[in-house]
Amino acid sequence: MKRLDRVKKRWIIVKTLHKSKIKTGALLCFTAIIALAGFMGVDHFRPDERVIKINGSADMTPVVTTVEKSIGTKAQAPEEGAVSGLVVDGKSALLMDAGSGAVLFEKNSHDRLPPASVTKIMTMLLVLEAVDRGQISLNDMVTISERAAKMGGSQMYMEMGEQHSLEDLMKGIAMVSANDACVAVAEYLGGSVEIFVEKMNRRAEKLGMKDTNFVNTNGLPVANHYCSAYDIAIMSRELIKHATCKEWFTTWQDTINIGLPGKEKEFGLTNTNRLIRQYPGADGIKTGFTQDAGYCLSGSATRSDMTLIAVIMGSPTSQVRFNDISKMLDYGFATYDTVKIAEKGESTGNIRIEKGSLDLLNIVAGEDISVLVKKGEKEGITTGIELDKNIQAPIAKGQQIGEIIVYEKAKEIERYPLVAEEKVEKASFGQLYIRMMKNLI
What we know:
It contains 11 helices and 16 strands. By secondary structure, the chain is of the alpha+beta class. The protein folds into 3 domains: 1-42; 48-72 and 343-440, Sandwich (Peptidoglycan synthesis regulatory factor (PBP3), Domain 2); 92-336, Beta-lactamase, CATH 3.40.710.10. It has a 5-stranded antiparallel β-sheet, sandwiched between helices. Strands 11-12-16-15-14 form a 5-stranded antiparallel β-sheet, with no helix packed on it. A two-stranded antiparallel sheet has the order 3-4. Helix 1 (2-40) packs across helix 11 and helix 5 (179-190) crosses helix 6.
């Protein structure tokens, strides 16, 4: 009897161990299946649903959010001559809202005319874009060549062989329209003036400047060198995105040392753009004059969040050009407002990236976004977000993954890109397994 009891006990122990092994094995198998399923693309083990919602929320999934803003009715660009009472004496003129690019007034704005030193806007733009790429630095020392030293017209009177920082040369271009500095920076960045001019024309083409052809870097009179008021506004709008140049444009006077070592002397810089002293909020951009071109100016001014660019070409006198620019700016500020929606790089929310090296990806505005509105019409416009379908890793930094949509009384009027703030690689098996285990706990 005792022996029978011992046999029964052993059988119970064996049976219990056997059941335990089965349970353990089953759990391990189940865990492996989940991990493998996640790695192979199955994502339905999560209790939350994989849907990106706008203006909504979910317990487990971060949601892209947007703030609705009452920002008024979008202003439409008037047709040429539609602005009653606004008359300018220059051959060609244009007023543009820098934020939206809308044209607010124009006169013969696509006529191809000599731009004189307003040409230097493109020269400065190429240099600052190269600085942004890390190709060059404003602290770089540039040696003045014989060709640069022999340039006529407005100049800094530098001698062959002397060296200056790229920033000092750019300051000379912006403030005193230095032709010698233009040649020096062109040779430094392009290797030669000719190669640099090719870069100028390629950049103009990319910007959509259809009525432009550059032959030199500084605008000195030469055949087949022309630009239009509209194209000047386009490149001006691009240039003033670089905050550095605004410091040069708004400095009235400064000094630098010029001359070979041991023969240095102080050279005074006085800004040629009187607009910055005469017009409230003026912050740029570039004057120009030759006998052939007449008096030219690309002027800008900022009030609150609104920046306007006014261009005049072929004015009969210097005073007339400043008067015409002031009249256009006055009209723009009196008639329109600009409301910012987002700055470039500003976050608009985040989304969960399945099987990505980052669990959450921040979504940012791909550019400065603003809407032009008429005075007194700041109602009825809201914004929303639309994301691309099937957003999956890998994702490149800056890759467009959606759009901000601007509506006027529920009617869509504009779309702007939303991009990834950083790069997202595909997640490794280990990363996916760890995330899965955290969700099971």
